[in-house]
Amino acid sequence: MDNRIEEIIKAAYTAFNQRNINNALATMQKDVQWSKAWEGGYISGHEEIKDYW
Fold it and tell me: Could you report the per-residue pLDDT of 18-44, keeping only the tens digit for each?
């Protein structure tokens, strides 16, 4: 795996585990889809994800 990609993935997981949604989303595309694990379905985009959190 490309080192850059590996670092992005590590940064995303670190931010997620720290419950830092802004830093987690900074590693993702603006149109990212997020699974609503408990409710089912998905939400799309940084703003919808922030509202969900």
Answer: 999 999 999 999 999 999 988 999 999
Domain carrying residue 22: 3-52
Q: Which residues contact 13 (CB under 8 A, 6 or more apart)?
A: none
> Residue 11: pLDDT above 80?
yes
CATH assignment of the domain containing 41 = 3.10.450.50
Residue 35 CA from chain centroid, whole number: 10
In the chain, the number of structural domains is 1
Please state, in angstroms and as integers, the Cα–Cα distance from residue 32 to each residue in 24, 42, 51, following that order.
11, 10, 14
Helices (DSSP H) in 1-53: which residue ranges? 3-17, 21-26, 46-52
Reported pTM = 0.77
